[in-house]
Design a protein that fits this description.
Residues 1-103 form the FAD-binding FR-type domain. Pfam families: Fer2. Residues 234-319 form the 2Fe-2S ferredoxin-type domain. The chain is α/β, with parallel strands linked by helices. It has 3 domains: 3-94, Elongation Factor Tu (Ef-tu), domain 3; 109-218, Nucleotide-binding domain of ferredoxin-NADP reductase (FNR) module (Rossmann fold, 3-Layer(aba) Sandwich), CATH 3.40.50; 225-317, Ubiquitin-like (UB roll) (Roll), CATH 3.10.20.30. It has 8 helices and 18 strands. Strands 4-3-6-1-2-5 form a 6-stranded antiparallel beta sheet, covered by helices on one side. Helix 4 packs parallel to helix 5 (196-206). The longest helix has 14 residues, at 118-131. It is globular and about 65 Å long. The two termini are 18 Å apart.
Length: 319
């Protein structure tokens, strides 16, 4: 995948555990265009690549703005961004990609964000505001101190469009969502992003009145319960290059193949970004990703080998 080099122009402490990073072109030229909901891959060396949503609006062509929450259970990405990356550093990134596009709608947009899930939603809000399109942003966090971009979203241009919610207990949140989502506005669109528990609650509540095609969401990681599900060993056969290889229980397909010198490009390693998408010619995948749609999973002709496994004893991959 082609990369470009950018300079870390500015780092801002946006909340007690969240920093934003303003990235600018080294040459001073405009950066590749993007659409609301896009993300970039950030390369941190030694094969460490992570995806971060762009927070600025698509009309802002001279910079990319990302925000990173320092995770207690960091796999290296957020820790590196918070503790290693400094202003002035040159880093490599990918061009923007969009798995969470803002679709045209004749009705109002309702944007819901939980915690760091505000990042892609903020780009959507900036775009809708600039276009004069009706929207409402509901932002749920632990406290003001944990609310990224609080000052910006409290500005006069967002007055009447943004509502903050702090430290709601599960039952309180559930009751509020029922009130918020009890009626579907004609041609309305709902976009949500945040922790899985939050998103599952929103999705379940909206399902009572909102049509499925009106609800759009983006996960940051696959379902931990899915990843921790029962695992059996199986084999993969490579149709084009030949060879059959065992995949032990508890080992990803990508790792099993890498042990034999066969490398599939990966990035998130959580079944989110789509980088490792691989064709399946025979066998039944055990899908554990959140990238493929339900229809794509039912077709059984592709797999995300960084997290998914096999229900059949053998998978034949288009490799």
């Amino acid at each position: 995948m082609t990369t470009l080099t950018v300079r870390v122009n500015k780092i801002t402490q946006e909340a007690c555990d969240i920093k934003s990073f303003e990235l600018r072109s080294v040459s001073g030229e405009a950066l590749p265009a993007f659409t609301p909901g896009s993300h970039i891959d950030v390369h941190m060396g030694e094969g460490l690549i992570r995806q971060y949503s762009l927070c600025n609006g698509p009309d802002d062509r001279d910079r990319y703005l990302i925000a990173v929450k320092k995770e207690v259970t960091s796999r290296g990405g957020s820790q590196t961004m918070h503790e290693v990356i400094s202003e002035g550093d040159l880093i490599k990134i990918s061009a923007p990609r969009n798995n969470f596009p803002l679709e045209p709608s004749q009705g109002p947009y309702l944007l819901l964000a939980g915690g760091i899930g505000v990042t892609p939603v903020l780009s959507m809000a900036r775009h809708l505001l600039a276009q004069g399109i009706q929207f409402e942003l509901q932002y749920f966090t632990r406290s003001i101190a944990h609310t990224a971009f609080h000052a910006f979203l409290s500005g006069p241009e967002f007055q009447g469009r943004v509502k903050f919610h702090y430290a709601l207990e599960p039952e309180g949140l559930r009751a509020y969502l029922r009130k918020l989502l009890w009626q579907y506005p004609e041609n309305g669109s709902l976009y949500l992003c945040g922790p899985r528990v939050f998103m599952d609650m929103v999705e379940t509540t909206a399902a009572a009145t909102w049509p499925p095609q009106a609800v759009h969401l983006e996960y940051f990681s696959a379902d931990p319960l899915s990843l921790a599900g029962e695992q059996e060993s199986f084999e993969v056969r490579l149709a084009r290059t030949g060879g059959t290889y065992a995949v032990p229980a508890g080992m990803p397909i990508t790792e099993a193949l890498a042990a034999h010198g066969i490398h599939i490009e990966t990035s998130c390693e959580q079944g989110v970004c789509g980088t490792c998408l691989t064709g399946v010619l025979e066998g039944t995948p055990d899908h554990r990703d959140v990238y493929l749609s339900d229809a794509e999973k039912k077709s059984c002709d592709k797999i995300m080998p960084c997290v998914s496994r096999a229900k059949s004893p053998l998978l034949v991959l288009d490799l």
